[in-house]
What does this fold into?
Amino acid sequence: MTAIAATPAPTRTAVASASTPRKLPTWTRLLIQPLVVAVLAIGVLVWAFSRDLTLTQQASVSVGNVAHVTWQHIVITATVVAIVLAVAVPLGTLLTRPGFRFLAPVFVGIANIGAAAPAIGLIVLFYLATRTTGFWIGVAPIAFCSLLPVLRNTILGYQEVDPQLIDAGRGQGMSTWQVLRRIEFPLAVPYILAGLRTSLVLAVGTATLSFLVSAGGLGILIDTGYKLRDNVTLVLGAVLAVALALAVDWLGALAENFLGPKGLR
It folds into this structure.
């Protein structure tokens, strides 16, 4: 009788590679995303400016007005991120120190409220509490909404540091401050940057509501287009907001790849 050769069973690696979709390499994604942003932004601008606009539309869809509200949106986002970093990173560092760790659930819970509450509700509440409008009334609630990712990741980053590395630093005569600055913080940076990337995208998206309190931003175009049934202005504002969100997400990805410790990239 002729022996029938047994077919070798597929290895776990082969099965995994066949069933798991391949991810694009990091560099490929970093190159594709800005191209998508450019196509979206340039495409919608060319489309909007080439339309036969009415006098009302010309007031909204003009180079000066579009540039102005886009700049307002960028300034709001940058201010929010600066506030979040200035509050969340030092606070997260403090909450991982002995003697303050018991307070971590309290502050994370407060930040959770900001993340869970509807942004439009917080903006209205800030307005009702202050009875005023303007830039800071738009920025403050957005910063509160964007606080959690950076605070939580800062705490997590310090918690993930190997205690043996801390002991080794102390064994070399480092002070508590030196251990924090040279060992703990650099190793926590990748986690902080990941949280920052999330906060950036949250800030850009939520900033479209800042027009409600006269803080400006691309939400003005969206609101104007909706109220006047002007699809050109509406689409222009919406697509530019999406393009800006993708742009800041790309910047966050760049920061994750280039600002972390060299050994962890």
Q: What stands out?
A: The mean pLDDT is 87. The two ends are 59 Å apart (CA to CA).
